[in-house]
Design brief:
The chain has eight helices and seven strands, in the order H-H-E-H-E-H-E-E-H-E-H-H-E-H-E. By secondary structure, the protein is of the alpha/beta class. The chain is globular, with a radius of gyration of 16 Å.
Length: 217
Amino acid sequence: MTDWNDEYIRKRKIKKRVYRLHQRVSAIDTAIKKNCRKNNFRLLEIASGDGKFLSELHKLYSKNEFFGIELSEKLANLNDDVSVKIVCASGENLPYEASYFDIVVMPAAIEHIKNVGAALTETKRVLKDGGLLIITWPNPFWDRINGIFVDTGHINSYRFSVMSRLLNNFGFNTIKKYGFMLFPFFDIPLHRFFENIFGYFGLDFLLFNYLIVSEKR
């Protein structure tokens, strides 16, 4: 049986995985800058793993408070960045008071969550009114192809329309949705330019990852 903790740790060091992490950091950073109306905000990451993503994102917002939760104690304990606070907890039972956060992010997490409804209910509870929920997940088409060759561990897959309806059912209004990540293995020169071209012609649904920005209503 695969030990997903050890597998996660091993894969985290692979060059293409590091590249993808930085692509997600960049995508969520852009989403925050374009949609968050506050300079000072409190952010929570759901499923922080070893904390690398949260740490890299925090470098861009070093004056703000960043928190993370991770179900695996083994992974949570790998975080060595004291500027971010990661605790061992479930996304279905968040250890925070209501209306505590301005932003919640789920980068490459929702495809792994068993009870998505419970996680979204808890996310809404800890978000302030008008707070942002930013989610990234794999393009379901490319994810299915990838699943032919490797065990991804993904149990959920969503088209944009399905994700928007799901969020609406749990009290979130979709603000923006678009694809990103032109190529998932290594950087391609001018990749941002080409991603923008895809978006301009409405073809960003072909890109390897999806991102949605929603607001608690």
